[in-house]
Amino acid sequence: MNNMAASLSTAPLSEINKALGNADNLTHIILNPIITSINDAIESIILTMHQEDFNKVESSPAVSLYMRELQSFLGRAALNYLAPFQHQQIISSSCIEVASRCIELFLRHASLVRPVSAAGRIKLAIDMKQIETAVSPLCKQLSELGRTYRLLRSFRPLIETSPEEVAECNLLGELIPHSLALMSLFNRAPPEIPSPHQSANWSVARLSQWLDGHRSEKERLELLSGALQKYQQTVRQQNKDNFHPIYPIMINILEKGLEYINNNTSASLKIQI
């Protein structure tokens, strides 16, 4: 193209650049609804995670049913819907967008699934490895996903660590949002501590929609705080002497998150998960 530009006058070159720009716009117009449909299908599949049993006594090395379906779907989507497009730069960017969204939704719902036994946490950890296989048809190198991929790899060990270790993780704030870490502890809490969507009388899908529309870490922490406050009120109304041991740990993460926001103004703007 550069050699051609040297031999063309300004007017023809301008027309060629305009035509190329129009071609890019047309590709986006055709591609955008396809990407939207793929993302919608991804969320529908991941939502079925909540129908699986993560409260089993014994773990199994088998891949979860929803994960097998997700892997199959993303393989078909990449091959049948995205590969036929010739504009590799736009397709590559769109594939990274889809893969990042997939991991975002997976981490979100893996944190919300409940109840989860010790064996269930092992199963979730296996799924966190399998999600890399699921998105691999979309990316030549998963490192292309940048922060989203680093978050996935960093969050995986927390699934099997103790709540105390989650609270003391030095990646909270810098890479792992406090809200995500806090949300992941609700499935280790007793039923008396309601999940965020239960506290708000929402479905899991409704909570996910809310999270999509509220990227502010402060807003998310405030929502999670509401669930903890509801538990606190229940304990007082029942005249119990003590809170469940996990409650102060969750409060600790909440307070650290709010403090982090106060010390880092940008943290209150937007987060990825």
Explain this structure to me?
The chain is 66% helix and 0% strand. The chain has two domains: 133 residues, Methane Monooxygenase Hydroxylase, Chain G, domain 1; 112 residues. The chain contains twelve helices and no strands. By secondary structure, the chain is mainly α. 31% of the residues are buried.
List the helices and strands and how they pair.
Layout: H1 2-7, H2 10-47, H3 65-82, H4 88-112, H5 118-135, H6 147-155, H7 163-168, H8 178-183, H9 196-199, H10 204-213, H11 217-237, H12 246-263
Helix pairs in contact: 2-3, 2-4, 3-5, 4-5, 4-6, 11-12
InterPro entries: Cog5
Question: What can be said about this structure in brief?
Answer:
The chain has helices at about 1-5, 10-45, 65-80, 90-110, 120-135, 145-155, 165-170, 180-185, 195-200, 205-215, 215-235, 245-265. It is mostly helical and about 270 residues long.
Helix content: 55-70%
Q: What would CATH call the architecture of the largest domain?
A: Up-down Bundle
C-alpha termini separation: 40 Å
Report low-confidence residues grouped into runs of 5 or more.
15-21
Q: Could you tell me the number of beta strands?
A: 0
Mean pLDDT: 90
- What about the largest sheet? none
- Rg, Cα atoms, Å: 22 Å
What number of structural domains do the residues give?
Answer: 2
What would CATH call the class of the largest domain?
A: Mainly Alpha
Strand residues, percent: under 5%
Global morphology: globular
Oligomeric state of this protein:
single chain
Please provide the ordered H/E string of secondary-structure elements: HHHHHHHHHHHH
Class by SSE composition: mainly alpha
Number of helices: 12
GO biological process, one term: intra-Golgi vesicle-mediated transport
InterPro entries: Cog5
GO cellular component, one term: Golgi transport complex
